[in-house]
Protein backbone atom coordinates (compact mmCIF):
# COMPACT_ATOMS: atom_id res chain seq x y z
CA UNK A 1 0.00 0.00 0.00
CA UNK A 2 1.57 3.29 -1.03
CA UNK A 3 1.94 6.09 1.46
CA UNK A 4 2.29 9.58 0.03
CA UNK A 5 3.73 12.73 1.59
CA UNK A 6 3.32 16.24 0.24
CA UNK A 7 6.05 18.29 1.94
CA UNK A 8 6.44 22.02 1.47
CA UNK A 9 8.48 24.94 2.68
CA UNK A 10 6.74 28.27 2.11
CA UNK A 11 7.56 31.70 3.53
CA UNK A 12 4.63 33.66 2.08
CA UNK A 13 2.10 30.97 1.11
CA UNK A 14 2.61 30.49 -2.66
CA UNK A 15 4.30 27.11 -2.47
CA UNK A 16 1.78 26.03 0.16
CA UNK A 17 -1.06 26.74 -2.31
CA UNK A 18 0.58 24.46 -4.87
CA UNK A 19 1.16 21.81 -2.18
CA UNK A 20 -2.53 21.91 -1.25
CA UNK A 21 -3.61 21.54 -4.90
CA UNK A 22 -1.35 18.49 -5.25
CA UNK A 23 -2.57 17.07 -1.94
CA UNK A 24 -6.24 17.37 -2.98
CA UNK A 25 -5.49 15.51 -6.21
CA UNK A 26 -3.72 12.62 -4.52
CA UNK A 27 -5.90 9.80 -3.21
CA UNK A 28 -5.27 7.13 -0.59
CA UNK A 29 -2.96 7.13 2.41
CA UNK A 30 -1.65 10.69 2.23
CA UNK A 31 -0.26 13.45 4.45
CA UNK A 32 0.58 17.10 3.89
CA UNK A 33 3.21 18.68 6.13
CA UNK A 34 5.36 21.77 6.22
CA UNK A 35 9.08 21.11 6.50
CA UNK A 36 9.16 21.89 10.21
CA UNK A 37 6.42 19.36 10.96
CA UNK A 38 8.48 16.45 9.67
CA UNK A 39 10.13 14.34 12.34
CA UNK A 40 13.63 12.88 12.03
CA UNK A 41 13.57 9.65 10.05
CA UNK A 42 9.89 10.07 9.16
CA UNK A 43 10.43 10.24 5.38
CA UNK A 44 11.59 6.61 5.32
CA UNK A 45 7.97 5.50 5.84
CA UNK A 46 6.62 7.11 2.62
CA UNK A 47 6.73 5.44 -0.78
CA UNK A 48 6.30 8.71 -2.72
CA UNK A 49 7.24 12.24 -1.67
CA UNK A 50 6.22 15.49 -3.36
CA UNK A 51 8.65 18.13 -2.08
CA UNK A 52 8.11 21.85 -2.73
CA UNK A 53 10.01 25.07 -2.05
CA UNK A 54 10.26 28.70 -3.25
CA UNK A 55 13.30 29.64 -5.33
CA UNK A 56 15.64 31.71 -3.15
CA UNK A 57 18.76 33.29 -4.67
CA UNK A 58 18.37 31.15 -7.81
CA UNK A 59 18.34 27.90 -5.88
CA UNK A 60 16.90 25.76 -3.11
CA UNK A 61 16.49 27.60 0.24
CA UNK A 62 19.19 26.44 2.70
CA UNK A 63 16.63 24.93 5.12
CA UNK A 64 15.32 22.67 2.37
CA UNK A 65 18.81 21.62 1.31
CA UNK A 66 19.27 19.42 4.38
CA UNK A 67 15.90 17.73 3.82
CA UNK A 68 16.82 16.91 0.22
CA UNK A 69 20.29 15.66 1.12
CA UNK A 70 18.71 13.23 3.60
CA UNK A 71 16.48 11.66 0.93
CA UNK A 72 16.95 7.86 1.08
CA UNK A 73 18.45 6.06 -1.93
CA UNK A 74 15.84 5.01 -4.47
CA UNK A 75 13.02 6.99 -2.81
CA UNK A 76 10.42 8.10 -5.36
CA UNK A 77 10.22 11.90 -5.31
CA UNK A 78 8.74 14.73 -7.34
CA UNK A 79 9.81 18.33 -6.87
CA UNK A 80 7.77 21.51 -7.24
CA UNK A 81 8.74 25.13 -6.80
CA UNK A 82 7.44 28.66 -7.14
CA UNK A 83 9.54 31.60 -8.31
CA UNK A 84 9.24 35.32 -9.02
CA UNK A 85 11.12 35.41 -12.34
CA UNK A 86 9.46 35.31 -15.76
CA UNK A 87 7.99 31.96 -16.83
CA UNK A 88 10.53 29.77 -18.58
CA UNK A 89 13.58 31.64 -17.28
CA UNK A 90 16.65 29.39 -16.97
CA UNK A 91 17.12 30.39 -13.33
CA UNK A 92 13.82 28.88 -12.24
CA UNK A 93 14.74 25.60 -13.92
CA UNK A 94 18.19 25.61 -12.32
CA UNK A 95 16.70 25.49 -8.82
CA UNK A 96 14.86 22.27 -9.68
CA UNK A 97 18.02 20.85 -11.26
CA UNK A 98 19.88 21.71 -8.05
CA UNK A 99 17.20 19.93 -6.01
CA UNK A 100 17.74 16.81 -8.12
CA UNK A 101 21.50 16.97 -7.51
CA UNK A 102 21.00 17.48 -3.75
CA UNK A 103 18.73 14.43 -3.54
CA UNK A 104 21.33 12.31 -5.32
CA UNK A 105 20.29 8.69 -5.36
CA UNK A 106 16.57 9.41 -5.05
CA UNK A 107 14.33 8.37 -7.94
CA UNK A 108 13.10 11.71 -9.31
CA UNK A 109 9.85 11.13 -11.22
CA UNK A 110 9.32 14.71 -12.36
CA UNK A 111 9.29 18.41 -11.55
CA UNK A 112 6.84 21.31 -11.70
CA UNK A 113 7.20 25.03 -11.21
CA UNK A 114 5.16 28.20 -11.60
CA UNK A 115 5.46 31.87 -10.78
CA UNK A 116 4.63 33.14 -7.29
CA UNK A 117 3.92 36.63 -6.04
CA UNK A 118 6.86 38.31 -4.35
CA UNK A 119 5.56 39.96 -1.17
CA UNK A 120 5.37 43.80 -1.21
CA UNK A 121 7.80 43.90 1.76
CA UNK A 122 10.38 41.81 -0.13
CA UNK A 123 9.86 43.89 -3.30
CA UNK A 124 10.46 47.07 -1.27
CA UNK A 125 13.71 45.75 0.16
CA UNK A 126 14.98 44.44 -3.19
CA UNK A 127 14.01 47.64 -5.03
CA UNK A 128 16.43 49.59 -2.83
CA UNK A 129 19.46 47.65 -4.03
CA UNK A 130 20.69 48.75 -7.49
CA UNK A 131 21.82 45.25 -8.46
CA UNK A 132 18.31 43.84 -7.85
CA UNK A 133 16.31 46.76 -9.30
CA UNK A 134 15.76 45.34 -12.80
CA UNK A 135 14.80 41.92 -11.43
CA UNK A 136 12.40 43.49 -8.93
CA UNK A 137 10.64 45.52 -11.64
CA UNK A 138 10.14 42.32 -13.64
CA UNK A 139 9.00 40.33 -10.58
CA UNK A 140 6.09 42.73 -9.98
CA UNK A 141 4.22 40.94 -12.80
CA UNK A 142 4.19 37.72 -10.73
CA UNK A 143 1.69 39.39 -8.38
CA UNK A 144 -1.31 37.39 -9.66
CA UNK A 145 0.39 33.99 -9.24
CA UNK A 146 -0.16 31.23 -8.44
CA UNK A 147 -3.44 31.67 -10.36
CA UNK A 148 -6.17 29.18 -11.30
CA UNK A 149 -4.25 28.06 -14.36
CA UNK A 150 -1.12 27.37 -12.24
CA UNK A 151 -3.21 25.32 -9.79
CA UNK A 152 -4.74 23.33 -12.66
CA UNK A 153 -1.23 22.65 -14.01
CA UNK A 154 -0.14 21.50 -10.54
CA UNK A 155 -3.08 19.08 -10.38
CA UNK A 156 -2.12 17.68 -13.82
CA UNK A 157 1.45 17.30 -12.60
CA UNK A 158 0.23 15.31 -9.57
CA UNK A 159 -1.78 12.97 -11.82
CA UNK A 160 1.25 12.43 -14.10
CA UNK A 161 3.49 11.62 -11.15
CA UNK A 162 0.97 9.20 -9.66
CA UNK A 163 0.78 7.38 -13.01
CA UNK A 164 4.57 7.16 -13.22
CA UNK A 165 4.86 5.98 -9.60
CA UNK A 166 2.31 3.22 -10.23
CA UNK A 167 4.22 1.98 -13.31
CA UNK A 168 7.50 1.65 -11.45
C1 LIG B 1 14.76 35.96 -0.04
C2 LIG B 1 14.09 35.69 -1.36
C3 LIG B 1 14.87 35.34 -2.47
C4 LIG B 1 14.25 35.09 -3.71
N1 LIG B 1 15.02 34.72 -4.75
C5 LIG B 1 14.43 34.46 -5.94
C6 LIG B 1 15.21 34.07 -7.08
O1 LIG B 1 16.43 33.96 -7.01
N2 LIG B 1 14.57 33.81 -8.25
C7 LIG B 1 13.22 33.90 -8.36
O2 LIG B 1 12.69 33.66 -9.45
N3 LIG B 1 12.44 34.26 -7.31
C8 LIG B 1 13.00 34.54 -6.11
N4 LIG B 1 12.23 34.91 -5.04
C9 LIG B 1 10.77 34.96 -5.20
C10 LIG B 1 10.09 33.72 -4.60
O3 LIG B 1 10.70 32.54 -5.09
C11 LIG B 1 8.60 33.68 -4.96
O4 LIG B 1 7.95 34.85 -4.58
C12 LIG B 1 7.95 32.45 -4.32
O5 LIG B 1 6.69 32.22 -4.94
C13 LIG B 1 7.72 32.60 -2.83
O6 LIG B 1 7.13 31.40 -2.37
P1 LIG B 1 6.50 31.24 -0.91
O7 LIG B 1 5.29 32.15 -0.86
O8 LIG B 1 6.10 29.81 -0.86
O9 LIG B 1 7.53 31.60 0.10
C14 LIG B 1 12.82 35.19 -3.82
C15 LIG B 1 12.07 35.57 -2.71
C16 LIG B 1 12.70 35.83 -1.50
C17 LIG B 1 11.85 36.25 -0.31
Radius of gyration: 16 Å
Question: Could you describe the largest sheet, including whether it forms a barrel?
Answer: 5 strands, parallel
Poorly predicted runs = none
Individual helix count: 6
What is the fold's blueprint, element by element?
Blueprint: E1 3-8, H1 14-25, E2 29-34, E3 48-54, H2 62-69, E4 76-83, H3 90-102, E5 107-115, H4 120-127, H5 133-139, H6 148-167
Parallel strand pairs: 1-2, 1-3, 3-4, 4-5
The structure holds flavin mononucleotide (FMN).
Flavin mononucleotide is lined by residues 10-15, 54-58, 82-85, 91-92, 116-118, 122.
Protein described:
This protein has 6 helices and 5 strands. By secondary structure, it is α/β, with parallel strands linked by helices. It has a single domain (3-117, 145-167), classed as Flavodoxin domain (Rossmann fold). The protein has a 5-stranded parallel β-sheet with strand order 2-1-3-4-5, sandwiched between helices. The mean pLDDT is 95. Flavin mononucleotide binds at residues 10-15, 54-58, 82-85, 91-92, 116-118, 122.
Amino acid sequence: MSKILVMYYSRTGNTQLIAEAIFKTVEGDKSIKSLKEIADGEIASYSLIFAGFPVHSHSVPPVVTEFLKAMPQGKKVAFFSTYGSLKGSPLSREALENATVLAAGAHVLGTFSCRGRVSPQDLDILMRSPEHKAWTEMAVSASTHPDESDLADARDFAVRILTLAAQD
